[in-house]
Amino acid sequence: MERNTRQRSAIRDALERAARPLLPAEVLEAAQAEVPGLSIATVYRNLKTLVEEGELRPVNLPGENPRFEVAGHRHHHHFQCTRCQRVFDVHACPGDLSRLAPAGFTVEDHDLTLYGRCGDCGAHRGAAAAA
Fold first, then answer.
1. How much is the pTM?
2. Distance between CA 57 and CA 71 in Å, rounded?
3. In which domain, by residue range, is 123 found?
4. DSSP label at 100?
5. How far is 41 from 87, CA to CA, in rounded Å?
6. What is residue 6's DSSP assignment?
């Protein structure tokens, strides 16, 4: 049981350190710094448990495998880099989008994903253009 607790703690710590949604493979890589023998099956099993317990939440982007982030963030959106595919939190919101819904429809929730280049990849593009 101690091994599971250590593994779960390493997974949770990896997500907290990242401060952005991670794919299971990214969680594995980050958590292996604390638990070198950690396997992808163990990561998936613990991610499922942590979601069920309300400690993590899945981030589902169209056409992508789910990523996971620490639960408890207030309402936010996401940005996905089109070059490196990493996903980042966007702590801003356009607000009430009900004006975009057809007449007579009621908006109950919304999810917004921005796409473009992250700071690292945008800087890389500028360096390549200068060369």
1. 0.78
2. 5
3. 77-130
4. G
5. 23
6. H
Supply the CATH number for residue 28's domain.
1.10.10.10
- Furthest-apart CA atoms within the chain: distance in Å: 56
* 113 touches 85 (CB < 8 A): no
- Say whether both 91 and 43 belong to one domain: no
Count CB atoms within 10 A of the CB of residue 107: 11
Q: Domain count of the chain? A: 2
Residue pointed to by tokens 């607000």: 95
How does pLDDT run along the chain (131 residues), one tens digit per residue?
345 589 999 999 999 999 899 999 999 999 999 999 999 999 999 999 999 999 999 999 988 999 999 998 888 899 999 999 999 999 888 888 888 999 999 999 888 899 999 999 986 655 555 44
